[in-house]
């Protein structure tokens, strides 16, 4: 790696995942490494032009959170609370024994409690009354607030909104809180429950969603020549972040190191990526600079790759220029769909697991790579690989970009 002053070490000591593949990191990792897509027809979207999504079946949050809490939380917060529970458990942390004033929470979401907002709007039209907890259920900042409240984390608590880069932004901001000494522990991640008639109709109207209704499981096809749009997905990921020295002092096992973080804006178009990936390139270079690394040091990239014709091509062109085919590239969205504000956190968690297992998952449904994509795409089966430095890249509407550089601990 290139020489240079590197920031204080921040490590991941725990992680939790809830996706359409199931509850728990193990369920998601198994689905992604098997290249098993999770998209299915959803009754919530009956009658719409796009009636399928990647939605978790048999999710019963009351068993984990209690009926009272479930009644006053939107599904996106429930997903996050379950993921946070797993993250703390795997980190070996007992909140009853920590100094809550030194524990921060940074979460990301794009749409907050959109299903609550939608349901209560319908209810208002029918009954001219709404639930008394409508506002705290859909406010985006309540995502971090619910986690802070449940585990008495009294340090900085915030929800960031950078569209589909939100989860990655949250992890980057969380790492910064540790580096500046504002916190000793940070729970960082993202959550989204976007299987909403309003969102499905709006994204479809934009031409952003796949219309492959006859075979929804094959609809999300990152980098594939036959891709025609993304598939809505729901999920949450939470990472426990600590300074490396603190984790070592308490005997915790570090899963990976947050080596760098970079963020940028395209300043090009509100919904279309820069065609040459200029903003994303700036974020990649910033993450590498903080890591004290160069493009030659990168072994693997978990790409944003949503399965849209324009977006995948712009990102692929940038990665090909930066890395000249020397890195393995995958996208989890073929299996899990596009989880919007949660995507960056889910994919960062999967990148951590790839580093732990030294294995790159394949991109589901990537049967016929777009001939214009000149990348070392992982397809078919998982690829054992030595990963010394990996990037997890995210982009979003508004020209938002966030990139995390991760390395073995």
Automatic annotation (TrEMBL):
Keywords: Acyltransferase, Transferase. Pfam families: ketoacyl-synt, Ketoacyl-synt_C. SMART domains: PKS_KS. It comes from the Bacteria. The keyword Acyltransferase applies. Residues 7-408 form the Ketosynthase family 3 (KS3) domain. InterPro entries: Beta-ketoacyl_synthase (IPR000794), Ketoacyl_synth_AS (IPR018201), Ketoacyl_synth_C (IPR014031), Ketoacyl_synth_N (IPR014030), PKS_Beta-ketoAc_synthase_dom (IPR020841), Thiolase-like (IPR016039). PROSITE patterns: KS3_1 (PS00606), KS3_2 (PS52004). Belongs to the thiolase-like superfamily. Beta-ketoacyl-ACP synthases family. This is Beta-ketoacyl-[acyl-carrier-protein] synthase family protein. It comes from Kitasatospora misakiensis.
């Amino acid at each position: 790696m290139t020489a240079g002053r590197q920031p204080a070490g921040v490590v991941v000591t725990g992680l939790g995942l809830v996706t359409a593949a199931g509850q728990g990191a193990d369920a998601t990792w198994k689905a992604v490494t098997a290249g098993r897509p999770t998209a299915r027809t959803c009754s919530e979207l009956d009658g719409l032009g796009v009636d399928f999504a990647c939605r978790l079946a048999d999710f019963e949050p009351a068993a984990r959170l209690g009926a009272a809490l479930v009644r006053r939380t939107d599904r996106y917060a429930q997903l996050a609370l379950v993921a946070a529970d797993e993250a703390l458990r795997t980190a070996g942390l007992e909140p009853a024994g920590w100094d809550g004033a030194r524990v921060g929470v940074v979460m990301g979401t794009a749409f907050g409690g959109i299903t609550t907002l939608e349901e209560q709007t319908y209810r208002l039209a029918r009954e001219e009354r709404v639930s008394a907890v409508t506002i705290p259920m859909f406010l985006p900042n309540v995502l971090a607030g619910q986690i802070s409240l449940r585990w008495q984390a009294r340090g900085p608590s915030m929800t960031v909104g950078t569209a589909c880069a939100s989860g990655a932004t949250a992890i980057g901001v969380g790492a910064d809180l540790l580096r500046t000494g504002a916190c000793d522990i940070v729970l960082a991640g993202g959550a989204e429950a976007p299987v909403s008639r309003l969102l499905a109709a709006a994204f479809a109207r934009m031409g952003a969603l796949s219309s492959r209704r006859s075979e929804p499981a094959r609809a999300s096809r990152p980098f594939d020549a036959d891709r025609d749009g993304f598939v809505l997905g729901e999920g949450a990921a939470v990472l426990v972040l600590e300074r490396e020295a603190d984790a070592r002092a308490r005997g915790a096992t570090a899963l990976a190191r947050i080596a760098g973080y970079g963020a940028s804006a395209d300043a090009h178009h509100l919904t279309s990526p820069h065609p040459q990936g200029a903003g994303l390139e700036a974020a990649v270079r910033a993450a590498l600079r903080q890591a004290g690394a160069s493009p030659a040091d990168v072994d693997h990239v978990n790409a944003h790759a949503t399965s849209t014709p324009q977006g995948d091509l712009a990102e692929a062109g940038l990665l090909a220029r930066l890395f000249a085919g020397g890195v393995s590239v995958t996208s989890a969205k073929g299996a899990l769909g596009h989880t919007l504000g949660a995507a960056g956190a889910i994919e960062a968690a999967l990148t951590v697991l790839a580093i732990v297992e030294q294995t790159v998952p394949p991109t589901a449904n990537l049967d016929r790579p777009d001939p214009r994509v000149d990348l070392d795409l992982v397809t078919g089966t998982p690829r054992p690989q030595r990963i010394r430095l990996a990037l997890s890249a995210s982009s979003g509407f508004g020209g938002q970009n966030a990139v995390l550089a991760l390395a073995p601990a």
